[in-house]
Structures are given as C-alpha cells and as structure tokens.
Amino acid sequence: MNAIQTTVKAGVIGFVLVCLIMIAFYAVPGMIACVALAIYMLMMLLALNGFNATLTLPGLAGIILGIGMAVDANVIIYARIQEEIGAGKSTGAAIKSGFGKAASAIIDGNVTTLIAVLVLWFKGSGTVKGFAQTLGMSVLISMFTALVISRFLVYAAYHFGLRDKKWYGKPRTIKTRDFVRTGKKYVAVAGVIILVGLAALPMNRSKIGSILNYDLEFSGGTASTITFKDDQKVNDSLEKQVVKAYEKVSKSTSVQSQKVKANNQMVVKSVELNLSQRKQIENTLKKDYKVKSVTTENISSTISNEMQRDAFISVVISAICMLIYIAIRFKDVKFGSSAIIALINDVLVVFAAYSVGRLSVGGTFIACMLTIIGYSINSTIVIFDRIREFFGLYPKRNRMQLFNDSLNTTLARTINTSLSTLIVLLCIFVLGGDSIRSFAFAMILGVVIGTLSSIFIAAPIAYLTMGNKMPEETKA
User: Fold this and answer.
1) Phi and psi for 292 in degrees, rounded to 5?
2) DSSP 268
3) 213-214 and 360-361 as β-strands: parallel, antiparallel, unpaired?
4) Mean pLDDT taken over the chain
5) How far, in Å, CA of 167 to CA of 98, rounded?
6) Rounded distance, CA 452 to CA 244, Å?
C-alpha cells in the first residue's frame, strides 16, 4: 500500500511537470491539454471506483501508459495545428485541419492498443487481466478527452477571442536527418545488446541458480510472521532493519515486508529458508529486537506456470491481431511486420537489461513488458500514419527522402511524448519505494528503447522491404 501511495504522489508531481512542458511548447493549446489531462485523471478515478477495480502496481502501469497516450494524442493535434499555421493557413482553418489530420493517427494508435487489451483481458489472468482492465479504461478515456474535450475547449478559446496565431505556439524549423541510413547502425547496437543479454542467462544460472532473478511471485519462498513486544514500535525504521537482516541471512534481495500495526506484527516474505537459516534469523531478531515470537511457513508462487503461459500466448495473439489490423489500415502487410519487428526488439532489449542487471522478475515484469508493447506500437503507428499521408501527397518523391521526411516531421511529437512519459516515470523512480524502483527503471528503459525503435527500426525496415512500391490506396 505504501508503494502505491508514493507512486500516486510521484505521479501527481510528474503530471504538474508535464503540464508545464505542454504550456511551454504549445501555449494556449498546452493549457487546454492540461485541463483535458486533469479531466482524464478524474474520469479514470471515477471509472476505477465505478468498476471496483483494485489499484495494483500493474494497474498503475496501465494508467501510466494511458497518461502517455493521452499526452501523445494532444501533442499530435497541437503539433498539427502548428504545422498548418506554418503552412500559411488562418488560425480557424489550422485548428479544423489539425484535428482532422490528427484523428487517423490517434484512432489507429488507440485501436491497435485496444486490440491487445481485448486479447489480454479474455486470454490472460491475474496480473495480466488487471493490467488490461486499467489500460482499456485509460485508452477509451484518453481518446474521449483528446478528440472531444480538447476539441471543444480549443474551439471555445478561439471563439472567445484567442485567434492570434501567437497563442498557438511557434512552428518549428525542421532539420533534415537521414534516419533510414542511421537505422542500420542502431540495429547493430540493439543486436549486440540482445546477444549480451542472452549470453548472461547461463552465467546467471551458475551464480544465482536460475537464468533470471525471479521474485517470490515466481519462485515462492518462506513467509515469517514476527510478533513484537508491546513496547516495541513497528515503524519504517524497524521494518528496514528487519528486511536487511533477512537479506543477509537469505543472501538475496528478494525480500518483501508488511507492517501489521494493529497486532504489533510484521510479515516478511523471502526466498525459501532452510531450517538453519530460520533458526539464525529467529535468534538474530530476538537478540537485537523486542520480539515475542517468529512463526514461519513455506509459500507457493502466486504467478503459476499457467499464468506465465497465458501471458505469453496473449502477447503472441495480440501481435498477430495488431499485424493484421495495421496491414489492413495501411494497405500493406510490410507496415505491420515492420511494427512487430520493432516491438520484438523492444521486448528483447529490455529482457537483456533484466538479464544482465539481474533485476527482480515478478508480476511487475509482465506488466512492464506489456506496457512497452503498448507504448512501442502506438509510437510506430504515428510515424506510419505520416508516411501513409506523404505517399498520397508526394507519389513521385524519392522513397528514401519520403520516409526521412515523415520521420523528421514527426520527430518533435515523438520527443515531446516520450519526454512527458519519462518525466512521470522518473518521478516514480526517484520518489517511489524500493519495491517499485526497479520496475520504474525498466519502464524508463522501455520508453527510450520504444522511441528509438519506432524511428530507427520500424520505419527503415518498412522502407527496405517496400522499396519503391506504393500502398494500394495511394495509387491513382
């Protein structure tokens, strides 16, 4: 519960910082975005209460992804408005055109994520189902606030007199970068990282007994109920000291604790302790602290093999469904396959981080991987939407230039969205407790990798596989 409370607090601070960035970049629309995001958060809380959803860490991961997608939708719209103003249109025409052109990217990105949500909800279980529930609500609410609330507020501001172009931000000069050629270097670097991660698996087995640092949710262990004497206060300081004692005896950092102040008790879960270790920890506690008794019992893993299998199957089915949807919407299966390749890269690179860094692998690991998939596919869809648009506008343009132009014109949106999401995650990493810090770190890594792969893997691979071929819908 403390982890969730600190996470919520960190999220609020992150939200304020995101609002400041939105205002700095988009002026009046940025302020409107802050109002829309506040409405999103309020509606999300009401939805959680209405559906009696339990707020878990995986659930919070779904909300964080929802915040990212809500910010992304507003960024797409306001960046489009700035582009239209830069092209010489009047403010009113730019607003209308901006919302119209942004709609396809927002809808495609959110629908693709909803496809994954539905599969995870019906096929997944436990942690996976809870993640799908909160993410599904987040996506639907973020779409509503971006396409309905934001539109209403922007038009209201315009009709109430804010018609000068200066109120809508200054169009930015776009520098041309050759992302398609640079993509080859990125693929090589990502490949090395993945190979290092795979090579670390057998080394982990020899040192820690398993290929990954499985948390208690995967491996099970020993639960100890420690009852203190009445004059011993069960506070945070005592909790940290007891946890350190268990870490020393168990020779593992996989220790979870929970205070039960009403009964002057503490429940500690650790890796499985043998009889000698149990006696050692009991003697230590009675010697150093005012302890009445220590009772221990073995506990089984809460994430069964069946749950792991369901999560894996759900991801595979989701990937196939997303590939089909993208192929249909973009009239070419190569767009879908390129997006899936980028997605697989993201998952493997983050997996390598868990392997090499021996990060704790528990229920949040599954939520983290699912969040990365959702974030990565949404970022890729936005870039593909611009490529599709440019195919229709400039059918005779050199294909490499067309892909690079698409990437360059969406770069500001990509950076702003990723920066906003990273700020929330950094606040959680800095202010959150130990139980969520490794999760936040993996999420940060996932957002960075997902952003880079959308730019340097998805689009370049689509270019290499398509060559000069145009999607069917753009042919005359």
Assistant:
1) -80, -50
2) E
3) parallel
4) 82
5) 15
6) 38
Best mean pLDDT range from 99-108, 295-304, 363-372: 99-108
The phi, psi pair for 339, rounded to 5°, reads -65, -40
Give the closest residue to 252 by CA, choosing from 288, 213, 217: 213
pTM of the model: 0.77
For residue range 6-26, what is the model confidence (pLDDT) as tens digits? 666 777 888 888 888 888 888
223 SS3 class: strand
Is 82 in contact with 174 (CB distance < 8 Å)? no
The pLDDT value recorded for residue 198 is 92
Compute how many other C-beta atoms are within 10 angstroms of the C-beta atom of residue 408. Answer: 17
Query: In degrees, to the nearest 5, what angle opens at C-alpha 378 toward C-alphas 377 and 382?
Result: 115
Structure tokens at 26: 């988009």
The answer to whether residues 335 and 394 touch, using CB atoms and an 8 Å cutoff, is: no
Per the CB < 8 A criterion, the answer to whether 22 and 74 are in contact is yes
DSSP letter for each residue of 135-170: HHHHHHHHHHIIIIIHHHHHHHHHHTT--SGGGG-P
Residue whose tokens read 């797409």: 76
| Region of poorest pLDDT, from 377-386, 409-418, 465-474 | 465-474
Question: CA 121 to CA 376: how far, in whole Å?
Answer: 20
Lowest mean pLDDT among 154-168, 237-251, 302-316, 438-452: 302-316
- β-pairing verdict for 221-228 and 213-214: unpaired
Extract long-range pairs of 187-194: CB within 8 Å, 24+ residues apart: 187/456, 187/457, 187/460, 190/345, 190/349, 190/449, 190/453, 190/457, 193/349, 193/352, 194/345, 194/348, 194/349, 194/352
